[in-house]
Amino acid sequence: MSFTDVTFLASIGIRLLVKAARAIAKKNGRLVVFNPSEDARKVLRSTGIDSIIAVVADEKAAIAEFR
Amino acid sequence: MSLKKSIGLLPTASDVTRFNTWFDLECTASGVERRLAANLKLCVNEVLANLISYGFSDTPAPMAAVEIDLRPGRASAKVIDNGVYFDLRDWPPVSKDRDLLTGPPGGFGIALIKEHATAMSYKRIGDLNEFEIVCEG
Fold it and tell me: Range of B28's domain?
């Protein structure tokens, strides 16, 4: 999932990400987020959601997560 | 130099958007550091989201107002509302070790406020809550 256009992330967005990560995990998949802003990255880290989704710098690194 | 302004809000998602637009403009005008503005904006959004979800179940005419005070090195906001008594400082932080794939997914908002605010205070004055958030650094 690209975070390129995400300019603001709060708990409502985190809840949606948790829901998405759970749904994807049920199908043996994994949610990967790439290119978050520094603010978004801090929110992802503060809430602990980076324990269930991968947060990487760019699309190339996101694709590499699946190899 | 300090910039002090206030805005009245209804407890709706569209008014949270209106707050954010107003807040961004005031921060630009004030010259407050971008990081402090971002931290305060997140905290106020979490307080407003909490109010919308839980604050006004028995309130006939819900209202909220946000007063901001922006200056170099310090950004603060008072959120005033006529909802139910709620001091979020009383809520224990959720454990970062919990399993988010299986456990209850709540508590993110309070965790974010506690992480991004430098200081918080709460007063109940008559029928009003007054919650102040300070971001410094």
Answer: 3-136
